[in-house]
Design brief:
The complex is a heterodimer. Chain A is built from 3 helices and 1 strand; from the N terminus they run βααα. By secondary structure, chain A is mainly alpha-helical. Chain B contains 16 helices and 3 strands. Chain B has a two-stranded antiparallel sheet.
Chain lengths: ~45, ~300
C-alpha cells in the first residue's frame, strides 16, 4: 500500500507559507518580534 | 558521516551568526533577512544573527493575535508555521542534528570529561507542556487589557536567548546593565544548570524542553526523509542503542525509528554492522509489508 501523505503535507505547508506572505506576515511579525526583544531575554 | 555532520554544524552556526565579527552601530539587526526563519534555535535578539528564530517569531505572532484581530488584522503565524512545516515535511527533525547552533553547543559541552549520566526517560515528555503551554496557550490567552500576550518560552525559559542575546547585549550596552532584574538572574542560573547538565548528559535541552525540536519531530514519521529498520537483517548487537544521542531504542521495539525524539544524526545508519537501518527520501510512503518483501527479494537476488 502506498500513501502520498508526505507530498500532501509538503504542499499544504507551502500553501501556508504563501498565504502568510500574501497576508504580509513576515514584515509585521518580525518588526514586533525585534521590538520586544529585550523583555524576551529577561531584561527590563 | 559524523565528521561531516560536525563540520556542517560549525558552518551552520557561523551562517546563523554571520555578523559575529561586525561591530554594528545598532546591536540588533533589523534588516530584510530578519524576515527569514533560521531552521534552528538561534535567538533573534542575538547581536550576531541576521535571521529570525522560528520559535520566537511564532510566539510573537501568537502573543499579538488578539490585538491584531481586535483591529481587523489577520496575522495567524501562517508564514512561520508554513516555513517550519516546509523544512520539517522534507527532512523532519534533521535541523536539530545538523544545523541548530544550540544543539552544537550541547554536543561540544558533552565532550568535557566528566562522569556521564543517562537521561530519565519520563523527562522527555517535558517537551509537550513546553510547546502547548509556553508557546501556544499562554501567549494567546494570557493577555493584557490591550490584547497583547507575552513570549512566555523566550522570556521565562529559553537558555539559548540568555546565552546568545542576553549576555552579549549586556556586554555591548552598559546602559542595559541598569535594567537587569531578578528575572535575568533566574534565567542566568537556568543557563548555568543547562550548561552543567549538557556536560554530563547528551543534549538535555533538546530532549526535555525544546518546543522547536518537538514541532520538527512531529513530522519525522511523515517527512520525505525517513529511516527504516529492517528487523530481518538486525544482528542484535544493540550498537544503535549505545550510540543514539537521544535514546531512541528501536531495535528492541521500545521506540519507533522515526520517533519525535530522533534528531536524524544517522549514527545508527552509519554504525549498524548488519545494515538494518536504511535511509529513504521519497514523497510516497510505502507500506511496511511491501518494503520488507522487496527487501527480501533483493537479498535473494543478491
Amino acid at each position: 500500500m502506498k500513501s502520498r501523505i508526505p507530498l500532501f503535507i509538503f504542499i499544504f505547508c507551502c500553501l501556508l507559507t504563501l498565504s502568510g506572505i500574501v497576508l504580509g506576515e513576515p514584515g509585521e511579525v518580525f518588526q514586533k518580534a525585534v521590538a520586544i526583544c529585550l523583555s524576551c531575554i529577561g531584561i527590563g | 558521516m559524523e565528521r561531516f555532520r560536525h563540520l556542517l554544524q560549525l558552518v551552520s552556526a557561523f551562517v546563523a551568526n554571520c555578523r559575529l565579527f561586525i561591530t554594528p552601530s545598532n546591536p540588533i539587526y533589523k534588516g530584510p533577512l530578519k524576515h527569514v526563519c533560521f531552521p534552528g534555535l538561534n535567538c533573534y535578539s542575538c547581536p550576531a544573527t541576521p535571521w529570525a528564530c522560528p520559535l520566537g517569531a511564532l510566539q510573537s505572532a501568537f502573543a499579538n493575535l488578539k490585538a491584531n484581530l481586535a483591529v481587523g488584522k489577520i496575522n495567524l503565524g501562517l508564514y512561520v508555521l508554513g516555513s517550519l512545516g516546509v523544512v520539517a515535511s522534507l527532512v523532519g527533525r534533521m535541523p536539530c542534528g545538523w544545523f541548530c547552533p544550540f544543539g552544537l553547543l550541547q554536543d561540544i559541552l558533552f565532550r568535557v570529561r566528566l562522569p556521564k549520566v543517562d537521561l530519565w526517560r519520563p523527562l522527555t515528555w517535558g517537551r509537550y507542556p513546553s510547546l502547548i503551554f509556553l508557546v501556544i496557550i499562554l501567549p494567546i490567552f494570557l493577555t493584557d487589557k490591550f490584547g497583547f500576550g507575552q513570549t512566555w518560552f523566550c522570556k521565562y525559559l529559553c537558555p539559548a536567548g540568555t546565552f546568545e542575546a542576553g549576555i552579549p547585549l549586556l556586554i555591548m550596552s552598559p546602559e542595559l546593565r541598569l535594567a537587569i532584574g531578578t528575572l535575568f538572574y533566574i534565567k542566568f542560573t537556568l543557563l548555568g544548570l543547562f550548561i552543567f547538565w549538557s556536560m554530563v548528559t547528551i543534549r538535555p535541552f533538546c530532549r526535555t524542553l525544546c518546543p522547536l525540536g518537538l514541532i520538527l519531530g512531529l513530522f519525522n514519521k511523515v517527512s520525505w526523509l525517513r529511516l527504516r529498520f529492517h528487523q530481518n537483517t538486525c544482528v542484535d548487537c544493540h550498537a544503535c542503542e549505545l550510540i543514539c544521542p537521544t535514546g531512541v531504542f528501536f531495535a528492541t521495539g521500545r521506540d519507533d525509528i522515526n520517533s519525535t525524539k530522533c534528531i536524524r544524526c544517522f549514527r545508527c545508519y552509519a554504525l549498524c554492522p548488519g545494515g538494518a537501518v536504511t535511509i529513504e527520501f521519497s514523497s510516497i510512503m510505502k507500506g511496511e509489508l511491501e518494503n520488507i518483501e522487496s527487501c527480501d527479494c533483493n537479498q535473494k537476488q543478491g
